[in-house]
């Protein structure tokens, strides 16, 4: 027995085949800009689009891409739930399959127009209520920052900054130890880089010793 075509696609895929657009919130763009690695940016935006247009969750995201996606997950899921709800009320499924030809054509056009208008109106109404929540997420990111190890990974991926700062993983690890000693466990990536450069200028001998030790170990 041949399996139905629907068995070849993820659950819910066909519910989204007629979706033409969604509201791209400003918060999506803001979080996208916070990601410093092109790889993280591509992973985040791809996961967002795949969820909106296919309702498929993306696995194996990088730590930063996952952090960005999770910060917007409530908004994304709300849009998905709103679309599914209106899609069901609009009768886009079933009507065109089980109804008559005339009913399918007429109902399909009217259903799509009505559902599209309803979807836009609901999402516009939801945007206002979500603005405060979006701002809160951004403020938490700015105020709390990321764990030092994540900041280190981001800094090392910025090859231009690494060249300018003339640094390496060992120096950043020593800087992380310094931060922990003074009671710091989180920073924003930008502040992390700035603080490291200042610390390096003030502690040149410590870093000379670190690099000398690494050379001795390699011998």
Structure in a nutshell:
With 219 residues, the protein is an all-alpha fold. The chain is built from 10 helices and 2 strands; from the N terminus they run αααααβαααβαα.
Give an overview in words.
The chain is mainly alpha-helical and 219 residues long. Helices cover 74% and strands 2% of the residues. The protein contains ten helices and two strands. The protein has helices at residues 26-34, 38-54, 63-90, 95-98, 101-144, 148-157, 159-165, 169-181, 189-202, 204-218; strands at residues 146-147, 186-187. A two-stranded antiparallel sheet has the order 1-2. Helix 2 (38-54) runs parallel beside helix 3, helix 3 packs antiparallel against helix 5 (101-144) and helix 6 runs antiparallel to helix 8. The chain is elongated, with a radius of gyration of 25 Å. The N and C termini lie far apart (67 Å). Mean pLDDT is 75; it is low at 1-9 and 89-105.
């Amino acid at each position: 027995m041949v399996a139905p075509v629907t068995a070849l696609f993820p659950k819910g895929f066909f519910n989204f085949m007629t979706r033409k657009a969604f509201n791209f919130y400003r918060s999506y763009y803001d979080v996208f800009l916070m990601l410093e690695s092109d790889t993280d940016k591509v992973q985040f935006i791809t996961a967002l689009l795949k969820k909106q247009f296919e309702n498929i969750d993306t696995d194996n995201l990088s730590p930063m891409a996952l952090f960005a996606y999770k910060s917007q997950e409530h908004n994304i899921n709300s849009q998905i739930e709103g679309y599914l709800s209106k899609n069901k009320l609009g009768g886009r499924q079933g009507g065109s399959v089980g109804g008559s030809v005339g009913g399918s054509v007429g109902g399909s056009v009217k259903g799509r127009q009505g559902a599209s208008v309803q979807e836009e109106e609901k999402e516009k109404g939801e945007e206002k209520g979500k603005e405060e929540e979006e701002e809160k997420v951004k403020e938490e990111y700015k105020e709390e920052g990321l764990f030092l190890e994540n900041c280190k990974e981001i800094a090392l991926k910025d090859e231009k900054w690494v060249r300018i700062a003339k640094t390496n993983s060992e120096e950043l690890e020593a800087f992380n130890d310094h931060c922990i000693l003074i009671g710091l466990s989180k920073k924003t990536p930008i502040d992390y880089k700035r603080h490291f450069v200042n610390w390096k200028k003030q502690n040149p001998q410590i870093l000379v010793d670190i690099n000398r030790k690494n050379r001795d170990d390699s011998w």
